[in-house]
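Batch job 17 of 40 flagged for manual review because the log was empty.
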Amino acid sequence: MADNVLDMATGQLGSGGIDALTKALNLPAGQGEAALCSGVAYILAGMLNRASSKTGMGYLFNLISESEALDLSKFATAISSPEKLKSITDIGEKMLEKIFSSRKKEVLEVAANNLGKEGGDLLSVSAPIVTSLMQSQAKVQKMDVSDLASFLIGQREHLQGYIPDNLLQAIDVPDFGKLGDALVTHGHAKPQEPRATAIQGPEEKRKPVSFSSWFFPLLLVLVVLYALNMCMLKGKKENSVSNPSMTSQEASFMESASQPVGDSPLRKRKRKRNWAPITFPVICVIISRAFQTIPTGNSPCG
C-alpha cells in the first residue's frame, strides 16, 4: 500500500501549520484539517486524471521534480503574512493550470461551491504542498516516471469520500472508479530518447579479430617481398659476371650488329634490370591490399 499523502500533509504541517492555514484563509474554526484534506484530495484527483496519458504523466513528472519545494516544517512562517501567502498562492495558481489544464476554471468553481469562497485559495495553497510531498517521496525512493505513476495509483484508495461527483464532472471523469483508470489499465514507462537503431538501422556486431586473421596475410606478403628481393640480387650478380666492363655504348653497338631483329640476350637482361624501379611500387600495392583484408577491431596488442 502506498503512503497516504493526506496523512503526510497533516503530519508534515502539524497543528501549528494547520492553525496558520485556518487563520490565513479565514476558515471556520476547527475546520482547518478537514479543509486541508479536501484541498489535497482535489489536487491528487487532478493529477490522477492528468496522468491518464503518457504525455500528461511525463508533464506531471517534470512539474513535481522541477518545482521548488516548500519547507513544510516551517509552513506557518511561510504564510504568516498576506504578502507571503500571496507568493505561495501565485505559485499554486500556475500549478493548477498544469494539473487541471483547460478544466481549471470549472474546478475552481466546484471548490468555491463545495469548500466556500476561499476554496480557490485553498487549492492554490494545496498544490505546492502536494508537489513538495511527492517530490520528497520521489527523491527518497528514487522514482522514475513509472514509479511515480504507481505511487499515484496507490493514492486513489485514500481519496474515497473526499472527491464529490461535481468535481469528477468538472474534470470529465464519469465516476470515481474511472479516475486514473488509464494508469491501471495501460501503465506508464519512463519516456525514452530516440534510439540510434531506429534512425540508422541496427548496427552490425563486430566480431573480435583473431591473431591468425592478420598475421598470416602479413607473413605471406613478407615472404613474397623476400623472394622478389633475392631474385633481383641474383640477376645483378649474373649480369656483373657475364659483362664485367662493357659500357652501355658498347653493349648497344654489339646488340645492333649481332642481332638486328628481335630481342637480344643483352636487351632481355636490361629489361630484367628495368624491373627494379617497378618492383617497389608493386610491393607497396600488395602490402596495402593485404592490410585492407584485415578486419577492423581491437588489435591483439591494444
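Reviewer: the log was empty due to a logging misconfiguration, but the result itself is present. Residues 25 and 118 are 6 Å apart (CA to CA). Unflagging and moving on to job 18.
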